[in-house]
Each structure stands twice: as structure tokens, then as C-alpha cells.
Amino acid sequence: MNLPSSALVSIVIPVYNGSNYLAEAIDSALAQTYPHVEVVVVNDGSSDDGRTEQVALSYGDRIRYYKKENGGVASALNYGIEKMAGDYFSWLSHDDLYMADKVARQMQALAGAASPRTIIYSNYAVFSDDPGSAVSVALKGVPPQAFRYWLTVENALHGCALLIPKAAFAECGTFDLTLRTTQDYDLWFRMAASFSFVHIPDTLVKARSHAQQDSLKMGAIVLQECNALLSGFTVKLGEAELRDASGEPVPLAYARIASSMWQRGFFQAAMVASRLGLGALAGLPLRVKARVLARLALGPLTYCVLHPLRRLLPARARGIIRRVFSGAARVRPPPAETVQGLALKEKFSEVYAKNIFGGGKSRSGEGSDMVQTAVIRREIPRLLKSLDIKTFLDAPCGDWYWMRHVDLPVERYVGVDIVEGLIAKNQSEFGNEKVSFQCLNLASSELPAADLIFSRDCLVHLSFADAQKIIANFKRSGAKYLLTTTFTERKVNEDLGTGFWRPLNKQLPPFNFPPPQLLINEGCTEGNNMFTDKCLGLWKLEDIELAQA
């Protein structure tokens, strides 16, 4: 496709009370290597005593600045589209960053496209505090004809990684003002019916993850809107589109969508896909019908039958039922209920011996794989350097799967755990003059002296009583700092009960920690992004008061 060499690209930055990050976003937009760019900043009625406006106005005529009454991100984007002078639209959130060649690479890809009716999208990276530590998210890059099916099943696209012809808005409409959290995916799906979405495998956007994001503050609205949106997507997918995109018969394609929805917690959308899958069974061979029914049954069995039964049945019965229904699909680790009632040492010895956490690479579970630890593997060394930490106590250290890849700037590392076999294995494989491992009970053993205690994903597996004992022992150790897991957006802490894990906000009862000195958002994507508030919080142990018995 021939593009005019002077084609103008409009980078539209909507912002509301965003003075903390806005300048970084504008700077990254102005730093584009593509020469024909305008930066349009839309202030969506900020209420921060003019701080956001002050940042924008400081750029003078290098940007085009508009101010409007508050109406939400969709209205701000639409206002920017109305005011933009460019032929192409590029959205940049006020808290995100563009790579310098973002627009240039996408315009180059657009020039090589077969049709002007093309929208370019790329990979992106996620970071919390340091953009240099951003972790790349590589998308599959499906064929354009499979894009709407992929968007329904995976929901992995980042809105700021797109380059869109302005003509697409004239033909397909703009962002839906009635949607608060899904306005972007709604529009991409509409556009994909008429325009080809083409992927380029470059990481061109750095997306910031932080606790003030709307997606974290409006969890209930997100769930409601996603259910409605994905239900609509599923209904609108045509039969030929389903067959071509999935490579399977239509009922199996619907069943795959349903399975994805059950897994991600969108139960209403799962029911819609299931009904459509069942309605398309007529005339198919018996073996195909059996595959469809098996795939459709697994989700509701898990979430509508087995989960409620957990509260009614004894632990042994729950374990038997889970093994029966999961065995046909794949071999799964024993359920956590099998270790309930055991003392800490026996409990976690069983966990590692039988891989109860169900980890693929690490027996410490999915949260200890290289994806879920990518952010903290980069951030922890920076923190240790800034605090001048010399001795580091890792409690518990687990199987040391990911920590072995961290370049710790300390003089001495000590990993402790209650599982004897695990510690012996770690010491044999990884022990040296700087790194050692000890088998200790975190609640009762005398702990080695250290400047900082690192305790990730520990207390979430323990009762309040056991957790308080461990915190008390951490304080007795004489360490100065505690770096530990906290889920910042949780509104209440629940005791362990019959489960084996739950998120904990350390600033809520019964812990009542003071505000942390620092938070590192882990960029957690487990449970289909249900735990994006998972952070490492830094506290001085002397500031933590023990709960009264």
C-alpha cells in the first residue's frame, strides 16, 4: 500500500488526575522517530487543583491541549478523535510509555500491508516502577480472519499498541460511552468485522501496572461488563469464522470459548457459549458430540458442582471426587484438603512431595515460575542496593527455582524452609560460601541474623494464628526490614478455614501493618488477572505491632 510520506499520526492521550505520570507519557510521544506526529492531550475534567493541567500546559505549543467536563475515558478518547488532525490514530494512556520507534514501525508495517483497511497492533511490556525492568508480553499474531475469535478466547490485546486509520472510526463508530471498562475491546471487535488486524512482533509500548488503575478499582464493574461483552462476541461470531479460526467443528469451537470463560470466571458468558455449542450438535458424528459434551461439562462440573460441594463434604470425600472428575482430563496433583490438620512440617513436606501446588516447573506452584516472577527478579536487586542490604533471609525459600536466577547484591544469602529433603537438595545443588540453606520452623526456630527478611507467598497459606507466630518470630530475629506479599485492593482478610490459600492485605485486621515504605506490583496474571493487586510490601519490622492475644 502506498502511503504519503507526510501522513500525520495523532497520538491521543486522555488523562484524569494524572499529574504523577503524564509528563513521562508526553515525553515518550514527543520522542517518536517518525517525523509527522501531533500529540493531543485531553484533560477529562481533572479535580486535582490544576496539577494535571499545569503539566500539560508546561509543554506549550509542542502539544495540542484540550479540557472538558469529566465523562470517562471513552468520552475523552472520542473527543480526541474529533479534534485530531491526523490520518491515523494512536492511543497512549497517561501512565504508559511508547518506545521511540512505535509509530515509525507501525507506519512501516502499514505501508507494507495489502490494503488500506488495515489496523496494526504489536506486542507490549508491563512494568511497575522501573520502565527498564518491563516484562514483554508476546502475542500470538493470528491471521486477520481469526482475530475476532482470538479476541474472544484470550483477551490479550493492549489498546495502546494499535495504529488505526481515522477512516475506521467514520465507518465503524467510536468508543461506546456507556461502557466504563470494556469500551476498547467493544470497538476492536466492531472494527475487525470490516478491517484487517495485522500483528507485528515488536514490543512498542510499556504499560505501567499500579494500584490506582481503574481496572483494579472497579472489579465488580469489570466482571459485569466483561460477561456482557464476551457473551455478545460469542453470539456475533459466524459459523465459518468459528470453523476457520479454531480449526474445529463449530460446536467444539463454542466449547473452547465456554472452557475459556469458565476458567477466567466469566460464568454468564460461559453459559451463552455452552448453549450455542449444544445447539450446533445436530448432524455431527457421535465421537464429535462426545468431545463437545466432555469439554462443555468440565467447566460447570468444576465451578457449579465441585466447588460448592467442598463446603459440605469431608476432606476425604472431596479428594476422591476431585480425582474422579479430573482424572479423565489429565493427571492432577492431590488436592490441598489431603494435608489439612497436619502440623506445619508434615503439611509442607506433603505439599512438595506430592506437588500439591500443581506447579509445572516449580513445586512451589505457578506463582514461582519465570513468568510470574519476571518483575520481582528485576526489582529485588534494585531494592537491596538502595537499602544497602548485606544479609538476606529468604523465608521460605521453597525449591529455589526462580531465585537462583536473581543476581543478589548481598554478602550472604540464607534460605530457610521447613521441608528437610528440600533444604538438603538446595544445599547440595546451590550452596556455596555466599549461599546457604537451613531447615527451620519459621514460627518457632531461632532465625539467622539478617538485614532483611524476604517472605513471599508464605502467610497466605497459613491460619491467622500461625501467621502471627511467624511475624512475631521475624521481629525477634532482629532483622530491620520485612519484604512480604500483600494484596493491596482486598477489603477484608479471611482466616484459612478449609482452604489452603487466600489473598491477604497486610494493612487490614488481624495484621494491621502500617502503610508500607514501598510497594512492588508483581504484574501477576494468575487466575486470568484476578490478582493484579499482588505486591511485595516493604516494612520496618520495628513499625509492625503484634496483634493482642
Give the termini distance in whole angstroms.
73 Å
Largest sheet: 9 strands, mixed
- The helix content, as a percent range, equals 25-40%
Strand content: 15-25%
SSE topology sketch:
Layout: E1 9-15, H1 22-30, E2 37-44, H2 51-57, E3 64-68, H3 73-83, E4 88-91, E5 97-98, H4 102-111, E6 118-127, E7 135-137, H5 147-154, E8 162-165, H6 166-172, H7 183-192, E9 196-208, H8 214-217, H9 219-236, H10 239-246, H11 250-264, H12 267-279, H13 286-309, H14 315-327, H15 344-353, H16 374-387, E10 391-394, E11 412-417, H17 420-430, E12 435-439, E13 452-455, H18 464-476, E14 481-487, E15 518-521, H19 526-529, E16 534-540
Parallel strand pairs: 1-2, 1-4, 2-3, 6-9, 10-11, 10-13, 11-12, 13-14
Antiparallel strand pairs: 4-8, 5-9, 6-7, 6-8, 14-16, 15-16
Q: How would you concisely characterize the structure shown here?
A:
This protein is α/β, with parallel strands linked by helices. Helices cover 38% and strands 17% of the residues. The protein has 19 helices and 16 strands.
